[in-house]
Hints:
Elements: E1 3-4, E2 10-11, E3 23-24, H1 33-46, H2 54-67, E4 71-75, H3 78-88, E5 94-97, H4 104-111, E6 115-118, E7 141-147, H5 156-166, E8 169-173, E9 181-182, E10 185-186, E11 193-197, E12 210-214, H6 217-226, E13 231-233, E14 236-237, H7 248-258, H8 261-279, E15 285-287, E16 294-295, E17 301-305, H9 307-310, H10 314-322, E18 326-327, H11 354-362, E19 363-366, H12 374-386
Parallel strand pairs: 3-18, 5-6, 5-7, 7-8, 8-11
Antiparallel strand pairs: 1-2, 4-12, 9-10, 9-16, 11-12, 13-14, 15-17, 17-19
Helix pairs in contact: 1-7, 2-7, 3-4, 3-6, 8-12
This protein binds ligand T4K.
Ligand T4K binds at residues 24-28, 77-79, 101-102, 104-105, 147, 173, 175-176, 197, 199-201, 210, 327, 331.
Amino acid sequence: xxxxxxxxxxxxxxxxxxxxxxxxxxxxxxxxxxxxxxxxxxxxxxxxxxxxxxxxxxxxxxxxxxxxxxxxxxxxxxxxxxxxxxxxxxxxxxxxxxxxxxxxxxxxxxxxxxxxxxxxxxxxxxxxxxxxxxxxxxxxxxxxxxxxxxxxxxxxxxxxxxxxxxxxxxxxxxxxxxxxxxxxxxxxxxxxxxxxxxxxxxxxxxxxxxxxxxxxxxxxxxxxxxxxxxxxxxxxxxxxxxxxxxxxxxxxxxxxxxxxxxxxxxxxxxxxxxxxxxxxxxxxxxxxxxxxxxxxxxxxxxxxxxxxxxxxxxxxxxxxxxxxxxxxxxxxxxxxxxxxxxxxxxxxxxxxxxxxxxxxxxxxxxxxxxxxxxxxxxxxxxxxxxxxx
Length: 389
Ligand code: T4K
C-alpha cells in the first residue's frame, strides 16, 4: 500500500512502482513501416516530392470522404492553415476568440494584424461561451474564431446565431476534432472554414500537417492560391500568398495512417471507458465527457481536480506523476490571455475571464494513445488515487 505523508512525500511500495518506460500524454500512431516504404518507393519512382503531387491529391480526396466535407485543402501544418483562413476571409480589426487554447489560435490573429478579443468559456465544455460573445462585439469585429477544445463541439447554434445577426464570419479551430461528428454531421461542415491539425500528437497525423475544410466552392481556388505564394500559373501571381503546401512524404504518411485510424479510435475509446470506470467514485476528480449528440475521436482524456475535495492540487498531481514516469500535461495553462503579448488587452484581464481562469487551474490531460493497455490505465488511476491526502 502507498503511504502518503502529510508533507507530500510518498513511500512507494511494490504495488505502485514507477513505470519502466516514460508514459507520455500521447505517442504518435506509427503504421506498419513496410506499407510506408512501399508508398515511398512510389514517390521515388515518380520523382515528384511536393507541389500538389499525386499522393497529395489522393489524400485530399480520401479525407474529403472520411470527414464528410465538400471541400478540403491540405497544409504543411495547421497553424499556416489558420493564417491562410483569416487571409482568405479578409479578416481585419478584431476577432473574438477563446483564451483556453494552444498559442497558435490567438497567434494567427496577431500574424494577420488582428486584435484578439478574449471571451470567457463554458464551465462544462470548456469552449467559448456563446452567451458572452455579443457584449464583446464592436464596429471593428469581423469574425469569431472558436475552438472545439479537446474535440468537444462548440455551441455552433449559439455562435452562428450571433454571427448571422452581426454579419460576422466564423472560423473553427478544429485542431483536436478530426472525424468528430455532431448529430451525424462532420464537424467540418460548421462555420465558414474549419482547420484540422495533423501534427504527430493528433489522433490522425502526417507528422506535421493540417487541412482547411469548407463548404463554399468559391473558397477553394483562393485558399489554394494563398498556400502556394498566390501563383495562378507560370506567368500570373494573383495575391500575396505564403508557402503552406503539404509535401508528398507527409501525404503518404496520412494515406497509410488512414488505414489504421478507425482501429486507433476504437482502442482509445476502450481506454477512455477504463479511465471512467477506475475514476468514477473518486471524490474531487471529474472528467470531460462527450455530449450525447457528438461522436468523439478520443483525442484527449481530461480530468478536473477539485483540490479541496481531492486533498491535493492539480499541480501537485502533475509533479508527483513524474516520479512514476508519467508525464501528463496542463493543457491549457497558462491561458493565452496571460501571455505577455496579450495581457495588456482589456478583455484579457482575469476579472473578465473567471471561468477560464478556474478551468486552467483545474484541468489535467492524462496519457491516452492506442499502445496503452487497460492495465496501464488501471495502474495510472491507482497511482492517482494514492495521491489523495
Ligand atoms: N490549435 C490548437 C487548439 C492546437 O492544439 C494546435 C496544436 C494548433 C492549433 C496548431 O496546429 P499545428 O500547427 O501544430 O498543426 C503539441 C503539438 O505540437 C501541437 O500540435 C498541439 N496543438 C498541442 C496541443 O500539442 P506540445 O508543445 O505540447 O508538444 P510536445 O512536443 O511537448 O509533445 C507532447 C508529447 O507528445 C511529448 O511529451 C511526447 C509526445 N510526442 C511528441 C512528438 C512531437 C511523441 O511521442 N512523439 C513526437 O513526435 O504541442
